[in-house]
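Researcher: Next sequence.
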Amino acid sequence: MPKPDPVLVVGTVAYDTVKTPFQDTERALGGSALYFSASASLFTDVHLVSVVGGDFDLNELNPLQERGVNLDGLHVEDDGQTFHWSGEYHYDMNTRTTHATDLNVLETFQPHVPEPAQATPLAFLANIDPTLQTLVLDQLTNQPLVAADTMNYWIENTPSELKNTLTRVDTLIINDEEARELANTPNLVEAMHRIQALGPDVITVKKGEHGSILMHQDEWFTAPAFLHADVTDPTGAGDAFAGGFMGTLASTDTITHQALRKATVYGTAAASIVIEDFGPRALLDATRDDLEQRAKDLARYAKFPPVGKPTPT
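Model: Next structure:
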């Protein structure tokens, strides 16, 4: 069996302070690139591009390196402080309040993709300034399959830059609120059609505990969320989803609708694991077998009984 293609991710590595109605933690590992890498590395090798400050303990990334994550693209600003996010989740564990977003070294971040990673066949542009996403695209040499994420802040404050980036992106992975705002419509199906018209051929909309929706050309697919008894920390679930999604495609010769459906299931499985602990710990402790079992469980949850009119005998 051929080795899966490596994947490039450009995003944040952070320290997070997270409070829930049930427990909380300070300075947990976080950041979009870190969550993505913890997920995608269950499938293939990952090139990570990001920036941290001199306060960051690089030894905390040893489990990622052991999984095949290349950190040559991680820049350390010795005199700076690492990006920090602080937030509080409410009882439904879907809505949250942000208390602090300290950009720190991220404020002057100019991503540089190391030469060996510039020809990577798959790339994920995590939730960063779309101007920086375009800067990354300009450094890639192999016309890779590109997926991207964004958020309300960029939709509201840099709309033209974001739309310019979307013309060069194959897949957009966002949540339902962001999709509606980006497309300026409350109708989610119409929103996905409008986003597709901006450039991405594939739209994946994450709906938290209600699963996800995939639109590929004129084909549709919905996947349920995993049925949890407890959710510890939803932070990073979307990036873990993206890691599972792109990691699955790394083993695919041809990107068909069936392959994208499978990627959606494995992305959901990865997201369902990461929310069981603070930070990426649950994913870093997980094995590929754990992920496979979770994907099988999801398939079982979604299995339909035979449908259709009975054939007359």
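Model: The CA atoms of residues 118 and 140 lie 5 Å apart. The chain has one domain: 7-301.
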